[in-house]
Design a protein that fits this description.
The protein has 552 residues and is mainly alpha-helical. Among the domains are: 36 residues; 131 residues, no CATH class. It has 17 helices and two strands. A hairpin with a 5-residue loop joins strand 1 and strand 2. The longest helix has 45 residues. The chain is globular. It is a multi-pass membrane protein.
Length: 552
C-alpha cells in the first residue's frame, strides 16, 4: 500500500510539473514569463493566474502527501514500539504464558511474571495536552467555555425575571457536598490504614517466609489477614459510615471512589511484590526485596493503579499548569451544576404531574441525551485529564497516558481499552491475565466475562451507595448490552460507519441512564414510600398499599 501511494504521488508530482512546463511554454511567447511589461510594471493578471494554479496544485497534492507522511509515521512508531518491547523482554518476546508453556507443557502455578514484564511506564504527555496545541482542537475547547457562559447567563437572566434580583445561590452544590468534615476524617482513616496495614502485613510475611518451617501456612495466614482488612475494614467500613451518617450524593461519591481506589492500590502493591519475594527465596538470596515506605507512599498518591518501585519522573513541577488543571476541575463542577439546573431539573421536577406512559418515557430519554453526553464529556475531562494531570505534575509523574483516543473507536472493545487506561490496566493485569494464568489460556471468553462481571458489580455498587437506592439499570446495560457489543462490534470493525454507530449507542445509553436514574431519584424525593405494607392473601397474591405522593 505504501509503495502504491508513493508511485501515485510521484506520478501526480511529475504530471503537475509537466502541466506547469506546458503552461509556461504556452505563455512564454506572449508574456515571456513573469517579467515586467513594456511600461515597467508586473502583469497582475498573470501573477494571479499563476498563484491560483499553484494553490490548486498544492491542494490536490496535500491529501496524498499527508497520507504518505502518516503511513511513514505509523510504520516508524510501530517499529519503535516493537523494538522497545523486545528490549524490555531481554531481546525476545517472552511472556508469562510462553514460559508456562514450556518443553513439558506443565503448568507451573507458582510462577509469576516479574513486574518488568507487565506495564511499562514511559515519559509521555496526555493526549489532550498535545491536541490542544493545535488551534482547530483548541477551538472546540473554547466552544465548551462559551456554552458554559451561556448557561450562566441563562440562569442569571431567568432568576432576575422570576425574583426581580440576581440570585447567586448554589443550593444544589452545597447540598451535594455537605458534611465534608465526616468525609475528611473517613478519608484520613482509610488512607492511614491503607498505608500501614498492607505494608506491615507484607513486610512481616516477607521477612518470615524464608525462615518459616511451614511457608504455606505462613502465607495463608497473612493472606487471610490481608483479605479481612480488604473486605472487612476497607470494604464495609466506609459503606457503613456513608449510610450511618446519611451523607449527601457527592460526599458519598468521594468516600466510595476513594474506598475502591485504596482497595485496588493495596492489591496491586501485594500482587507485584509477592512474586519478587518468592523468586528471592527460590534463589536463596540474602536480601529480601521489600519496598521502602516512601516508595509505597508515593504509589498511594501517584495517578496509577500499577505498583512499581520507581516511575519515570519529570525534572520540574510547573505550578502554573497545576493551578490551571484544578481551575478547570472546579469549572467542570460548575458546568455540571448548570447542566442539571437548566436542563435536568425542569425536565424531571414536573414529571410526577404527568401519568406515566411510553410517550413520556421516550421523550424523557431523548431529552436526557444532551445533558447525559455533556456530563460524560465533563466527567472525562475533569477527572481523567485535569485531576490526574494535576497530581501527576505535582508528583513529577512522567507517564501521563491516562486515556487514549477513545473518541476514534470503531469498536466497543477498543473503547473499553482506551476510555480509562488507568482502570483498564488494573483489570487487564490483575483480573484478566491472572484468570488466564490460573485456568490456562483456554478460557479467554470466560476471562472476559469475569472481568465484565467484576466491573459491572463495582460500578453498580458505587452508584447504589451514592444514590442510596438499588436500581440496576447500569448493571443491565453494562453486563448484557455492553458485553454483547464487545463481542459483536469487535476490533475487526474498521470502517467509519462503526464509529458513528458507537457514538449513537453511547449517546442513547447515557440518555437512558440519566433518564431512569433521575426519574427514580425524583420519585423517591416527591413520592416517598410511607405506610407501605406487604400483604399476602389466601389467594397467594402479593398486594402493596400505594405510597403517599406529595403534592406538587
Amino acid at each position: 500500500m505504501v509503495g502504491e501511494e508513493k508511485t501515485s504521488l510521484r506520478k501526480r508530482l511529475s504530471k503537475s510539473r509537466e502541466d506547469s512546463e506546458e503552461d509556461e511554454d504556452q505563455r512564454s511567447p506572449s508574456s515571456g514569463s513573469l517579467e515586467t511589461a513594456s511600461n515597467g510594471r508586473i502583469n497582475l493578471k498573470q501573477l494571479m493566474a499563476k498563484k491560483i494554479q499553484l494553490t490548486a496544485e498544492a491542494e490536490e497534492l496535500k491529501p496524498f502527501f499527508m497520507k504518505e507522511v502518516g503511513s511513514h509515521f505509523d510504520d516508524f512508531v510501530t517499529s519503535l514500539i516493537e523494538k522497545s518491547a523486545s528490549l524490555d523482554n531481554g531481546g525476545c518476546a517472552i511472556t508469562s504464558f510462553s514460559v508456562l508453556e514450556g518443553e513439558n507443557n506443565h503448568r507451573a502455578k507458582d510462577f509469576r511474571a516479574p513486574p518488568e514484564h507487565g506495564k511499562v511506564f514511559v515519559l509521555r504527555q496526555s493526549l489532550l495536552d498535545e491536541l490542544f496545541e493545535v488551534d482547530h482542537i483548541r477551538t472546540i475547547y473554547h466552544m465548551f467555555i462559551a456554552l458554559l457562559i451561556l448557561f450562566i447567563l441563562s440562569t442569571l437572566v431567568v432568576d432576575y425575571i422570576d425574583e426581580g434580583r440576581l440570585v447567586l445561590e448554589f443550593s444544589v452544590l452545597s447540598y451535594a457536598f455537605g458534611k465534608l468534615p465526616v468525609v475528611m476524617w473517613t478519608w484520613c482513616t482509610m488512607f492511614l490504614s491503607t498505608l500501614g496495614v498492607p505494608y506491615f502485613l507484607f513486610q512481616r510475611w516477607a521477612r518470615g517466609y524464608s525462615r518459616s518451617t511451614h511457608p504455606v501456612v505462613h502465607s495463608l495466614f497473612h493472606c487471610f489477614l490481608f483479605m479481612v482488612f480488604q473486605i472487612g475494614f476497607l470494604g464495609l467500613g466506609p459503606a457503613y459510615v456513608v449510610l450511618a451518617y446519611t451523607l449527601p450524593p457527592a460526599s458519598r461519591c468521594i468516600v466510595i471512589l476513594e474506598q475502591i481506589r485504596f482497595v485496588m492500590k493495596a492489591h496491586s502493591f501485594v500482587r507485584e511484590n509477592v512474586p519478587r519475594v518468592l523468586n528471592s527465596a527460590k534463589e536463596k538470596s540474602k536480601t529480601i526485596p521489600i519496598p521502602t515506605v516512601n516508595q509505597y507512599l508515593y504509589f498511594l498518591f501517584a495517578p496509577t493503579l500499577i505498583y512499581r518501585d520507581n516511575y519515570p519522573r519529570t525534572p520540574t513541577v510547573r505550578w502554573g499548569y497545576v493551578a490551571m488543571q484544578f481551575l478547570q476541575v472546579f469549572g467542570s463542577f460548575f458546568y455540571v451544576y448548570y447542566i442539571f439546573e437548566r436542563l435536568c431539573a425542569p425536565l424531571f421536577r414536573n414529571i410526577k404531574q404527568e401519568p406515566f406512559s411510553a410517550r413520556v418515557l421516550v421523550l424523557c430519554v431523548f431529552n436526557s441525551i444532551l445533558p447525559g453526553v455533556l456530563v460524560l464529556f465533563l466527567t472525562f475531562f475533569a477527572f481523567l485529564h485535569c485531576w490526574l494531570n494535576a497530581f501527576a505534575e505535582m508528583l513529577r509523574f512522567g507517564d501521563r497516558m491516562f486515556y487514549k483516543d477513545w473518541w476514534n473507536s470503531t469498536s466497543y472493545a477498543n473503547y473499553y481499552r482506551t476510555w480509562n487506561v488507568v482502570v483498564h490496566d488494573w483489570l487487564y493485569y490483575y483480573a484478566y491475565k491472572d484468570f488466564l494464568w490460573f485456568f490456562t489460556k483456554r478460557f479467554k471468553s470466560t476471562a472476559i466475562l469475569a472481568v465484565f462481571a467484576v466491573s459491572a458489580v463495582v460500578h453498580e455498587y458505587a452508584l447504589a451507595i451514592c444514590l442510596n437506592f438499588f436500581y440496576p439499570v447500569l448493571f443491565v446495560l453494562f453486563m448484557f448490552f455492553g458485553m454483547a457489543f464487545n463481542f459483536i462490534v469487535n476490533d475487526s470493525r474498521k470502517r467509519p460507519i462503526w464509529n458513528v454507530m458507537m457514538w449513537t449507542s453511547l449517546f442513547a445509553g447515557h440518555g437512558v441512564i440519566l433518564c431512569l436514574y433521575s426519574q427514580e431519584w425524583y420519585a423517591r424525593q416527591h413520592c416517598p414510600l410511607k405506610n407501605v405494607s406487604l400483604r399476602l392473601g389466601w389467594s397467594g397474591k402479593v398486594t402493596f398499599l400505594s405510597p403517599d405522593c406529595e403534592a406538587a
